[in-house]
Each structure stands twice: as C-alpha cells, then as structure tokens.
Write a structure and sequence with these properties.
By secondary structure, this protein is mostly helical. It is built from one helix and no strands. It starts with 27 loop residues before the first helix and ends with a helix.
C-alpha cells in the first residue's frame, strides 16, 4: 500500500477518492457533499414555498366558497322576488282586462238600449 493513498471511506464512491485541495483542507468528496447539501436545502426551500402556496390557495378557496354560498342565497332571494313581481303583474294585467271588458260590455248595453228605446 502506498503512503499517498487515502484511507477507505464508504461515503466516497470508489475510484473517485479526492485529494487534498490547494489549502489541504477540502476533499473532492466534501465538496460533493456540500453541493448535495445545497441541492437538498434548495429542494427543502422549494417544498416550503409550495406548502405556503397550498395553504394560501386553501384560504382563497375557503373565501371563494363563502362568496359562492352568499351568491347562491342572493340568487334564491332574487328568484323568489322575481316570481312575486311576475305574479303581481299577471294579476294587474287580469284586473285591467276585466275593467276593459266591463267597459266594453257596458258601452254595448248602453248603445243597445239607446237604439232600442230610440226607435219608439
């Protein structure tokens, strides 16, 4: 065994054992570990942001649900009010038709009586 070989490290893949860096403190494996740790930290941050966005969406969905329920109630009230107004208008139209027909019938009776008694 040569004296310049690195001791076996199970965390460094075989054939890739690093050599000391320029300052003798960093190994290729520790650089790789630091890079992996940075990727893991980035992934964790992205996951946290996704969780926050999901929570915000949940709050937005709850708000929309409450607004939807309010609109549904308002729509039902509007429908009832519209039906009430429609029925009132129908009765108002029926009353006018009754008045018009009554006036026409009275005019026909008056004209018929005037013609009948006018001949005598």
């Amino acid at each position: 065994m040569a004296s310049h070989e690195q001791p076996y490290d199970p965390y460094i893949p075989s054939g890739r054992a690093g050599t000391p860096g320029a300052n003798g403190q960093h190994y290729e494996g520790s650089d790789r570990t630091a890079a992996l740790q940075a990727q893991i930290d980035d992934t964790v941050n992205v996951m946290r942001q996704n969780i926050q966005r999901t929570e915000q969406r949940g709050e937005n969905i709850d708000t929309l649900d409450h607004k939807t329920q309010g609109l549904s109630t308002s729509a039902e009230n509007f429908k009832r009010g519209a039906n009430r107004v429609r029925k009132q208008q129908v009765w108002k139209n029926i009353k006018w038709w009754i008045i018009i027909i009554s006036v026409v019938v009275i005019l026909i009776i008056v004209i018929a009586l005037a013609v009948h008694f006018g001949k005598k």
